[in-house]
Specification:
The protein has 104 residues and is mainly α. Helix 1 packs across helix 4. It has one domain. The protein has five helices and no strands. It is elongated and about 60 Å long. One of its GO terms (molecular function) is phosphoprotein phosphatase activity.
Length: 104
């Protein structure tokens, strides 16, 4: 859902993927800290420093594949929204409400 919204807002695929990967990395780091804390509380000495989520790389490919398919079928998220009957005026309002200009 967020991927579609980001596309509707006009972000390109590489920006969406970079955002997705950063969120995944943050979540994995949080999970690692929780696991290490649990192991320490239990008094175990296992080394979890190399522990990561399963199939980290496949998540990147999943989102990339989704965006490629979205582009091939509908011309991107904006095209998908239009085929679902979302008026251009509503898409414009979404962009106006959610996007901010970079500070200069």
């Amino acid at each position: 859902m967020i991927t579609l919204l980001l596309g509707i807002l006009g972000l390109d695929a590489e920006q969406i993927i970079a955002d997705y990967v950063q969120v995944e990395m943050d979540e994995l780091a949080k999970l690692r800290r929780q696991q290490i804390g649990e192991v320490q509380r239990m008094g175990e000495t296992r080394d979890l420093s190399g522990t990561s989520g399963k199939d980290e790389g496949s998540r990147y490919y999943a989102i990339r594949t989704f965006l490629i398919e979205l582009d091939l079928r509908y011309g991107g998220a904006q095209g998908w929204a239009r085929t679902r009957g979302i008026p251009e005026a509503l898409l414009d309002r979404l962009r106006s409400a959610l996007l901010v200009s970079p500070r200069q």
